[in-house]
């Protein structure tokens, strides 16, 4: 089944060229199918690029997905045209009275900023608290994972001295968890963050099921026992060239970034990189949609039971 996204969204042409089945809003309105309602809170500066990354992964499912895009506030963007934001993004106030099957909160380039100094921190806290009673399952990606751990579990910010950047080997810690159906025992995934997610720190201070770890990168994937909160500390959505673009950007800003680990052939930035994580990225999102969202959510979102999701909070 296709993903349903707004007409004229730039990602449409890119995904069509990749033979991904896209359904416009106008066509979807004629079908008598209950699609999954998935909200994406896009915190990344280059929103059009990030939209395409996540829509590509959400498309790899037999389920029909109805996507809505959410912006954190109405501040002007330096990296995304205002007309794009006005046309395709909603303010939280317009969706706060509705229920959703899934919510994805993207990463943000805020690794060295203290939470209390993030200009939209209070607004993000409101959205994460709201999701506990209005969303069946929420996925927190990279910086959002650290923010979610702070707001939901009270975990303090853990910051590395040097940016963790590159492609790392990961091992499965719980091979029977539904999120890991079909995963190899070890696999590759990219990271690009200053946040630190030590295994012992997560294990000792939360009730999360730790599902995937890396000797170098720490916890990669963890989920609450009821699968309503899923934390992904890396970037399975990245294109082959995303780490390269970030590396060049950081060089241009005089940050002296380390060369991304095991990313460029022969560790030479002049050599074009290739994606070695794509299959597991698609599988992770398919499993999330199936086991954490579709099999948990009510058929009629108007009958969303707050008691079901608040009794253990």
From TrEMBL:
The active site is at 142 (acyl-thioester intermediate), 235 (proton acceptor), 237. The record marks 111 as: Important for acyl-CoA specificity. This is Homoserine O-succinyltransferase. The record marks 192 as: Important for substrate specificity. Substrate binds at residues 163, 192, 249. GO terms for biological process: L-methionine biosynthetic process from homoserine via O-succinyl-L-homoserine and cystathionine. Its EC number is 2.3.1.46. It is an enzyme of class 2 (transferase). It comes from Vibrio aerogenes CECT 7868. Pathway: Amino-acid biosynthesis; L-methionine biosynthesis via de novo pathway; O-succinyl-L-homoserine from L-homoserine: step 1/1. GO terms for molecular function: homoserine O-acetyltransferase activity; homoserine O-succinyltransferase activity. Pfam families: HTS. The lineage of its organism: Bacteria, Pseudomonadati, Pseudomonadota, Gammaproteobacteria, Vibrionales. Belongs to the MetA family. The keyword Cytoplasm applies. HAMAP family: MetA_acyltransf (MF_00295). NCBIfam families: metA. Transfers a succinyl group from succinyl-CoA to L-homoserine, forming succinyl-L-homoserine. GO terms for cellular component: cytoplasm. Keywords: Acyltransferase, Amino-acid biosynthesis, Cytoplasm, Methionine biosynthesis, Transferase. Coiled coil: none annotated. The keyword Transmembrane helix does not apply. It catalyses: L-homoserine + succinyl-CoA = O-succinyl-L-homoserine + CoA. It is found in: Cytoplasm.
């Amino acid at each position: 089944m296709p993903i349903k996204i707004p007409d004229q969204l730039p990602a449409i042409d890119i995904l069509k060229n990749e033979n991904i089945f896209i359904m416009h809003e106008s066509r979807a309105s004629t079908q008598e199918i209950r699609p999954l309602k998935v909200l994406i809170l896009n915190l990344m500066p280059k929103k059009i690029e990030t939209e395409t990354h996540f829509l590509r992964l959400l498309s790899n499912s037999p389920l029909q997905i109805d996507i809505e895009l959410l912006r954190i506030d109405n501040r002007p963007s330096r990296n995304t045209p205002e007309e794009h934001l006005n046309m395709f993004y909603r303010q939280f106030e317009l969706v706060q009275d509705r229920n959703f099957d899934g919510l994805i909160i993207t990463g943000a380039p805020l690794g060295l900023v203290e939470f209390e100094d993030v200009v939209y921190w209070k607004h993000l806290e409101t959205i994460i608290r709201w999701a506990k009673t209005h969303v069946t399952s929420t996925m927190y990606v990279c910086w959002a994972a650290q923010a979610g751990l702070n707001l939901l579990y009270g975990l303090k910010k853990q910051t590395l001295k040097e940016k963790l950047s590159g492609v790392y080997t990961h091992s499965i810690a719980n091979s029977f968890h539904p999120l890991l159906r079909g995963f190899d025992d070890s696999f590759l995934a990219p990271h690009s963050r200053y946040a630190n997610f030590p295994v012992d720190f997560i294990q000792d201070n939360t009730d999360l099921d730790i599902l995937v770890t890396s000797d170098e990168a720490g916890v990669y994937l963890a989920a609450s026992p009821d699968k309503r909160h899923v934390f992904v500390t890396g970037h399975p959505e990245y294109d082959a060239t995303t780490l390269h673009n970030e590396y060049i950007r950081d060089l241009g800003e005089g940050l002296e970034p380390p060369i991304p680990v095991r990313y460029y052939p022969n560790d030479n930035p002049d050599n074009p990189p290739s994606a070695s994580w794509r299959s597991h990225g698609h599988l992770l999102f398919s499993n999330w949609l199936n086991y954490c969202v579709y099999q948990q959510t009510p058929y009629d979102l108007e009958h969303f039971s707050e008691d079901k999701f608040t009794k253990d909070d």
